[in-house]
Amino acid sequence: MVRYKKSEEKQKMILYAAFQAVSELGFDSVTLQVIADYAKVSKGVVHYYFESKETVLIELLKWLTAKIYKKECASIELEKSAVKKLHAYISSAFVSPEKNRTFYRVYLDFLAKASRNPVYREINQQFYDNCNAIGKEIIQLGQKEGIFDINLSAEQTAPKIRAVIDGYLIQWLMMDRDDLHKFYREACLQTVISMLNNSSFFELRK
Amino acid sequence: MVRYKKSEEKQKMILYAAFQAVSELGFDSVTLQVIADYAKVSKGVVHYYFESKETVLIELLKWLTAKIYKKECASIELEKSAVKKLHAYISSAFVSPEKNRTFYRVYLDFLAKASRNPVYREINQQFYDNCNAIGKEIIQLGQKEGIFDINLSAEQTAPKIRAVIDGYLIQWLMMDRDDLHKFYREACLQTVISMLNNSSFFELRK
Amino acid sequence: MVRYKKSEEKQKMILYAAFQAVSELGFDSVTLQVIADYAKVSKGVVHYYFESKETVLIELLKWLTAKIYKKECASIELEKSAVKKLHAYISSAFVSPEKNRTFYRVYLDFLAKASRNPVYREINQQFYDNCNAIGKEIIQLGQKEGIFDINLSAEQTAPKIRAVIDGYLIQWLMMDRDDLHKFYREACLQTVISMLNNSSFFELRK
Amino acid sequence: MVRYKKSEEKQKMILYAAFQAVSELGFDSVTLQVIADYAKVSKGVVHYYFESKETVLIELLKWLTAKIYKKECASIELEKSAVKKLHAYISSAFVSPEKNRTFYRVYLDFLAKASRNPVYREINQQFYDNCNAIGKEIIQLGQKEGIFDINLSAEQTAPKIRAVIDGYLIQWLMMDRDDLHKFYREACLQTVISMLNNSSFFELRK
DNA sequence: GATGAATGAGTCTTCATTCAT
DNA sequence: GATGAATGAAGACTCATTCAT
Asked: Which residues carry the record's DNA-binding region feature (chains A, B, C, D) (predicted)?
């Protein structure tokens, strides 16, 4: 069957509607009817553009992680120094309470699914890989600049940055306090920087 | 009363069955029939002990987080120094690939729900508070011992420890590689220690 | 899952309701809701007793063909001579306009399905085999009695009897004229008898 | 008009596509999309040439039975004697395993529908009438030739020929064995001949 | 003439919940 | 206390039909 042919635009529209719907209601509670309602189309249209509900969700997550990654890329590209790039990266991750809430709600549903389903895990792995590429770039630049510990393996350290970002953002989401968003962003930045600066210190004192 | 006791035991049994079931299948896919099957009781029994499916899940998460917390408490109590307590705490959090997988799958489902539902959020907050109490105790002890940065607010820093632990464990879960479990535990420990040691450094260089 | 345990009676009731429903509306138009309505139970009950709609239909056809066969068996057992048994067999097949209509409508749906689906074909083959056993018995008895052509292979001739019966009953059904039922029964009987008597004649004149 | 002609051709094409589709999938499973796919046209075209799905099916069956009848007519016209015409008729009915399978699958679906729906029954009646005209012609010729029982009413006997043909072909279809096709054709021929030869015998011995 | 996007009614199926035994 | 039969609401999915282009 020839699908996806013409209106890729409409597909995107449906995905965005699904994103809003999932964010507000959660994976379990989102029905195709709800997605259709959010997209202001009939139920049949969703099926017309996507084979199944599962497909909608999978495409949603591909689209979403790709979008996040692109934004992060764009924001670090504007900066030159490692520290500024790191700032930019983390600021991009902590974009705003509203957007973080919307995204991380969906992302948590996604992670929960990914913990059991290889298809979702694969998509997340792609996201991780992309984020790690960013992390690696920043670490290596910082090492060249002499401000990050030269002994760190960029390869092994990059994932840790993402782990810390996600850890903080998830906790922030759970706190349900928008006013703490800035605090969490700073905390995250601090933790990452201390991680990149001081592993040698840690080794000495261990 | 003996009867009451027996009831309580059976309740626990059902909760444990629900835990296994949710871990394997996820919140969405778990039905009361499945829980009953895991518990080797009839479907009616589950309803006999719990008002509704929702109640089962809520009780499950109360029980689960309480259990995790107790284990963590027990493990740090055995140690005297701050560093050893921290080790014990993190080792307790990174108990084993199998147990971490089982727990964090459920916990992710839980967090996803909690991001929208105040009831679940409340339960998680209790868990966070408990964990933060542990964190605070360790930080303050370390500060007394002179090995942790004295300028850190224990109150504000304790949550960060949990954020880092969860961040690492979630990423580990996504990697689906049991052999990396140890690596993630060490990375987590390093990050936490560098966080506690070096905030002054960070301040200086910023 | 433990199904089919207790109320086999209710299963039969649902099958009978399905039989009536299919006969009146046809396979395509019969929904589980319709079957439930005919059985005067809720829609869920049908699913409780049968895995799927397909299962209902398959069981229906097993049950139906078994029932027809049993009746035919019972009717020929009462007779002693080959001709009388043949009469009984065909009379049993041409039981009454109402019952023939009800059964053959369903049976035609069944045959249509069986022409493409091995599962249904298998069930029909069982029915054919049973009918052929009846035919064989009659033919061999008639040959012993000296009234049927001794040169006929009972094995090869028995299926022909059923083919002729079905051919006539299907045509009768299409005519939609109850008053012709008797005529078709007699025509069927004649054709079968001439088939059993005269193959030698045919050979001679060919 | 050329336009009209083109239309007619396309209609035939769609009907033929529908025929193939129904034969392979059955009435229930055939959708307009499937028919369109088989005909290599868009879904809209089918609706352009036919009012509704039902119309497609009805026209299909008219077209199909007319086609079969024409072929049978053509084949008996080539022969002179009654026996040869009968041979030709039955050979035409038993044209080949492939074609019989294709046709009788559809025809069974058709009969199943006809058993409840007067519209389809009407079309089939037309087919029966046509077939009976052939049968009558053969019988009367045979009676003139002195090889068929002169006491037979051609009017009443002709339908029986078709009943026997259909009975055998349906059973053959159910056996799913192409190698038996020839056997069933011969058996059908024998049965019809014995039917036409020997009714007087039957009367005598009854 | 032809296309295929859009609609929404209708179907199967699942499952939490109720309740008679 | 315990069971599992019964219910029916709700969801995913299909598909004939319509209609703008």
From this structure: 31-50
Taking domain D57-205, whether its CATH number is 1.10.357.10 is answered by yes
Task: Examine the pLDDT at A5 and tell me if it is beyond 70.
Answer: no
**Contact assessment for residue B57 and residue B28, using Cβ atoms and an 8 Å cutoff:** no
Over residues A79-94, the mean pLDDT reads: 96
Q: Report the alpha-carbon distance of residue D20 to residue D36 in Å, rounded.
A: 12
Q: Which CATH number fits domain A1-51: 3.40.1160.10, 1.20.1250.20, 2.40.30.200, 1.10.10.60?
A: 1.10.10.60
Instruction: Centre a 10 Å sphere on the Cβ of residue A19 and count the other Cβ atoms it contains.
Output: 21
The mean pLDDT of D47-52, rounded to a whole number, is 93
Question: Is D156 near strand F, with its CB below 7 A from some atom of it?
Answer: no
- In this structure, chain D runs to a length of 206
**Of C20, C40, C21, C19, which is closest to residue C29 (Cα–Cα)?**
C21
Nearest 5°: CA angle at A194, between A193 and A195? Answer: 85
The torsion angle over the Cα atoms of residues A155, A157, A162 and A168, rounded to 10 degrees, is: 180
Torsion of CA C134, C136, C140, C145, to 10 degrees: 40
Q: Name which of C20, C153, C171 to mutate to probe chain D: the one with the most chain D Cβ atoms within 10 A of its Cβ.
A: C171
**Angle, helix B97-114 to helix B2-25, in steps of 10 degrees:** 90
In whole angstroms, F11 C1' to B46 CA is 24
Say what the pLDDT of residue D2 is: 38
What residues of chain B score a pLDDT lower than 50? 1-5, 199-206
* pLDDT at D1 exceeding the cut of 80: no
Residue of D nearest to C170 (CA): D163
Mean pLDDT of D54-61: 95
